[in-house]
Amino acid sequence: MGTMRHINILGITVALAALWGCGHRSNGADGGETIPVEKEFVVKNDSMLYGLVCDGTSDSVVVLWPFHGDPVAYSCVEARQDGRIIGKPEIGDWTGVMVNPEDTTEVTMVVDLDQLKGTWTYTVMPVMKDLQNMSKRMQRRMMANVPDSVKETFFVPREYGFTLKRGHKAEAVGRVMRRNTLEDDSPVVYPEVKRYRQWHMSNGRLLLVSGAGTLHDGASQTVSYVVDTLDLVYMDNDSLVLEADGVRCGFHRKQNGMKANEAAERAVERQERMER
């Protein structure tokens, strides 16, 4: 862990590209997997065991009632020491564990999936359109000359992220529903919002699935899925840390996706009034 870069992306747009642009992807054209449109995305070769947390679970033991079979008690001492307990498993919670193949009485990872569900966001800032291809040093110089009134009007933070729901459904957070009719004339641009549709777990890692579009080939139709594969580093009630390719990103829990961008919606409304 010591050799990995630790980047706090709150307010840093660059880390967005580092996480979503450089994360591990599924095989296939354009980093996606082409699947018949009538079929759902299927996770393959997943060794994680899923079930409900039962009475008897403690700091050293997790008792899991799998969906098929009887409750089993596993030692989780080493997993806790290694920081591989993601969340705080509570009785009745839907949870996934990775069983140690060399010692089936212990688990190497525990993830409370019920606690993982919800809306997780981080803050992004826009960049001036003319600055996108400039060096960071030149960007700082140019920004120093931008009037404060312009910064207050256009440099409004937005919340990006995702909502994980029941049934493996996912939604992206970051879209501002009130569209600025003069958006093309705005001096700033925000990063693209990834439109997630599903989420899954696979071998202790989080898969965020987005649809890249429907392809038509004669009478058949296929949909191209793009999968971002992320490592779970830490989670508590309000914080989540994910990692991709050595880059760690911190998220905060929000009430819901609509609440996350209320301030941005109001800012766009103000901009529209100014431009009329």
Characteristics:
disordered N terminus, 276 residues, 17 strands, alpha+beta, six-stranded mixed beta sheet, nine-stranded antiparallel beta sheet, 7 helices, single chain
Structure, explained:
With 276 residues, this protein is an alpha+beta fold. The chain contains 7 helices and 17 strands.
Helix and strand arrangement:
Blueprint: H1 14-22, E1 32-36, E2 49-53, E3 61-66, E4 72-75, H2 77-81, E5 85-86, E6 94-99, E7 107-112, H3 113-116, E8 118-124, E9 127-128, H4 136-144, H5 148-154, E10 158-164, E11 170-173, E12 188-189, E13 196-202, E14 205-217, E15 220-235, E16 239-244, E17 247-254, H6 257-260, H7 262-275
Parallel strand pairs: 5-7
Antiparallel strand pairs: 1-15, 2-3, 2-6, 3-4, 6-7, 8-10, 8-17, 9-12, 10-11, 13-14, 14-15, 15-16, 16-17
Mean pLDDT: 79
Q: Helicity, in percent?
A: 10-25%
The number of helices is 7
Q: Quickly give the structural class.
A: alpha+beta
Q: Secondary-structure element sequence?
A: HEEEEHEEEHEEHHEEEEEEEEHH
Radius of gyration (Å): 21 Å
Low-pLDDT sequence parts: 1-18, 20-31
Oligomer: single chain
Please indicate the percent range of residues in DSSP E strands (runs of 2 or more): 35-45%
Q: Quick one: how many beta strands? A: 17
Query: What kind of sheet is the major sheet?
Result: 9 strands, antiparallel
